[in-house]
Design a protein that fits this description.
three-stranded antiparallel beta sheet, 14 helices, MetI-like fold, mainly alpha, flat, 2 domains
């Protein structure tokens, strides 16, 4: 095509020339509509899930005596739905898991980001991510048969084989790769110029890591901690196998068996045919599920606000 054939060559440029190819515009409209439909579908599915939980949970609250929600234990088939038993056990397991997974995962991230060579990083990062792929039922059995007798009962000889501490340690093993991977990605995204500036001022590598890189990546580290906490709260199989039975007496000791919210739902719904017809036991599943949703939703909202507040842009 000669230059004289182009609109710019003649100095004439119409609206049609700026609009582009008609078929390409049609394809872009169809793609946009597809993505909008996918986004709306996810919103509708989420709304239906939350709506079903809210409706059944409302029926449960209206049909049960409120005094049954604050008793001495979680015995749903007998009409005792003590929520503090489930919430306390969930907090204990989560606290034990994060007290172990937080420091170990953070230290692993610092090593991978600031100290490990390229070859070591290429070797350890896939191994760490593979650990995250270990089935939770395997970790639950490991927590019950090895962690509890060799670690927990060594600390507290009077502890039974099933206890919240062993469940928390099992969840910690499951959570360490998540903390380490997300934290390492956040620290690796810090501009290298900050490290070079600190080194130019005479800072040691440890000082650079803790005084420069960590504060610069604090938004990612907070996000990793909140994400790992949500993961620990939502874990089911490890706490179901290692934490206790299908009913639980209230306890605030990590060395006693109990049920978290997820474990209570799994154990009660294990025989769904038996759950139906047991008074309010079936509806209690939706009540606990709604509480779990509200807790995790609150954590995500808090995480977004914290990350926006402490985020640093370079």
């Amino acid at each position: 095509m000669a230059m004289t054939d182009l609109p710019l060559a003649t100095g004439v440029l119409s609206i049609g020339d700026l609009a582009g190819n008609r078929r390409r515009r049609g394809r872009e409209r169809r793609v946009r509509r597809f993505f909008v439909a996918a986004a709306l579908t996810s919103l509708v599915i989420s709304a239906l899930i939350v709506g079903s939980l809210a409706v059944e949970a409302g029926r449960f609250v209206l049909s049960v005596d409120l005094s049954a929600l604050w008793t001495t234990g979680w015995f749903p088939r007998e009409g005792f739905f003590d929520v503090k038993t489930l919430i306390t056990a969930t907090l204990i397991v989560t606290a034990v898991a994060m007290l172990v997974a937080g420091p170990i995962g953070f230290a692993t991230a610092v090593y991978l980001s600031e100290y490990a060579g390229a070859r070591t990083r290429r070797l350890l990062k896939p191994v760490l991510e593979t650990l995250a792929g270990v089935p939770s039922v395997v970790l639950g059995f490991f927590a019950l048969t090895w962690i509890s007798p060799h670690i927990v009962q060594w600390i507290e000889p009077a502890a039974p084989l099933s206890n919240l501490a062993s469940a928390g340690l099992g969840v910690a093993i499951l959570t360490i790769p998540l903390v380490a991977s997300v934290s390492e990605d956040a620290m690796s995204s810090v501009p290298r110029s900050l490290r070079e500036a600190a080194s130019g001022l005479g800072a040691r590598r440890m000082t650079t890591s803790l005084r420069v890189v960590v504060p610069a990546a604090v938004s990612g580290l907070v996000a990793a901690a909140i994400l790992a906490t949500s993961r620990a709260i939502g874990e089911t199989m490890v706490v179901l196998i290692a934490g206790g039975a299908d009913q639980a007496q209230f306890t605030a000791s990590p060395f006693q068996p109990s049920l978290t919210m997820t474990a209570a739902m799994a154990s009660l719904a294990g025989g769904s045919d038996a759950v139906v017809g047991q008074g309010n036991a079936y509806q209690s599943l939706f009540f606990v599920g709604l509480m779990l949703f509200l807790i995790t939703f609150g954590l995500n909202v808090a995480a977004n606000r914290i990350v926006r507040r402490v985020r640093q842009k370079y």
